[in-house]
Design a protein that fits this description.
Structural class: mainly beta
Number of helices: 0
Number of domains: 1
Radius of gyration: 13 Å
Order of helices and strands: EEEEEEEE
Strand order of the largest sheet: 1-2-3-4-5-6-7-8
Number of strands: 8
Helix content: under 10%
Strand content: over 45%
Length: 101
């Protein structure tokens, strides 16, 4: 599944993206150190409408500076799902690919 989100706002701690069906993603830069080799650059929260956003995944850099990868567990099967987040138009748009909710 591919879904387009448009930037709805930002401040010094997060950027908010909203889709046409009012689903929101909150992109937050990681502000702590990890002892792992591959560290997340951002983490992603997801929510719908006015409900509180919940943690979705850490986002990891790829070779393409506009593309990040993440993973989460499918809510029904429990299997790990890999997905990508691609930024377009200088960060004004976010394309989420590979998740099925």
């Amino acid at each position: 599944m591919t879904k387009l989100f448009k930037k709805a706002g930002s401040n010094t701690t997060a950027s908010i993206y909203v889709s046409d069906d009012k689903e929101k993603l909150i992109l937050v830069p990681v502000n702590r150190s990890y002892n792992q080799t591959k560290k997340p650059v951002f983490y992603l929260k997801s929510g719908k409408g006015s409900q509180k956003a919940h943690y979705l995944s850490g986002l990891f850099a790829t070779k393409d500076p506009a593309v990040f990868s993440g993973d989460t567990r499918h809510p029904i099967t429990g299997m790990k799902q890999l997905f990508t987040v691609t930024f377009q138009d200088g960060g004004e748009k976010l394309v989420l690919e590979g998740l099925s909710w």
